[in-house]
Inverse folding.
């Protein structure tokens, strides 16, 4: 699927941009399903917020259980700015959800179809993933006006394998621009050390600092403005971030975090699978 030049670019830069990877029909089916799941969320069941800041500290509360169990479920998380001072939603429910996670790729028919197939398997092979394992799916709404920032991070912090293998498949469901909070990446930054690791200890999680290498700044980072249907594929060591969406335009995206079964998946990773819910790959 990839040319030799594209394979070399992926190795050198740590990411590759593939416009037109998904069709308009595939995108609209995924978006419709995501909106349906968001609109059906039971507000009384959970008002759990997703924010990258929240993932830093140790936690043990009801919200923590909701988050931890979402690894093998389909669950909704709110935007931090979804709530007014009185605790009520400022926008309608479906426009207040930050993301859906984290096992739709196995549990939901529409998401399953989008997340599997020969085309993805072939691409994975081209970038060095021999036997894929899809651990996590996230549908990120980045809602108009209230869509939260995703702080600089490396996805390998969340999915340790030995040797390193986690790779992110990020699909633009809408056009992603500077205005609505596109991804930013540091070309070549996948060669820098892993700065943090996020681990699970029983029913608790914590972020541990590993390396003090500073996060990129606007001199070394580049925005990845892409059209809907584009797949951005990147090495799990690549630092990336996205700004808040203060525009009136939605910026939906869908991501898959994928490792190679030939590498050992760490028992302290927050998402684990049991025998009755086995991990699978693109085909
Ligand atoms: O889409 C975004 O804004 C960030 C996504 C991300 O950080 C990820 O998928 O690892």
């Amino acid at each position: 699927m990839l040319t030799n030049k594209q394979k070399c670019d992926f190795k050198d830069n740590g990411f590759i941009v593939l416009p037109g990877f998904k069709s308009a029909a595939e995108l609209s089916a995924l978006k419709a399903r995501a909106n349906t799941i968001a609109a059906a969320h039971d507000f009384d069941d959970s008002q759990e917020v997703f924010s990258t800041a929240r993932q830093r500290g140790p936690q043990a509360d009801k919200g923590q259980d909701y988050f931890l169990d979402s690894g093998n479920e389909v669950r909704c998380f709110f935007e931090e700015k979804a709530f007014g001072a009185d605790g009520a939603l400022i926008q309608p429910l479906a426009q207040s959800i930050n993301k859906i996670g984290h096992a739709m790729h196995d549990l939901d028919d529409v998401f399953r179809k989008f997340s599997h197939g020969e085309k993805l398997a072939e691409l994975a092979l081209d970038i060095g993933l021999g036997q894929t394992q899809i651990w996590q799916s996230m549908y990120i709404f980045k809602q108009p006006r209230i869509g939260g920032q995703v702080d600089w991070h490396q996805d390998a912090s969340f999915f340790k394998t030995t040797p390193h293998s986690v790779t992110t498949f990020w699909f633009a469901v809408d056009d992603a621009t500077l205005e609505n909070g596109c991804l930013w990446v540091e070309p070549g930054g996948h060669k820098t050390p892993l700065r943090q690791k996020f681990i699970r200890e029983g029913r608790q999680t914590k972020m541990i600092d590993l390396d003090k290498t500073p996060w990129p700044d606007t001199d070394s980072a580049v925005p990845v403005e892409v059209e809907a249907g584009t797949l951005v594929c990147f090495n799990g060591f690549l630092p990336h971030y996205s700004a808040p969406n203060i525009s009136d335009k939605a910026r939906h995206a869908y991501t898959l975090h994928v490792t190679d079964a030939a590498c050992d998946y760490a028992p302290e990773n927050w998402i684990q699978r049991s025998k009755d819910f086995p991990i699978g790959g693109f085909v």
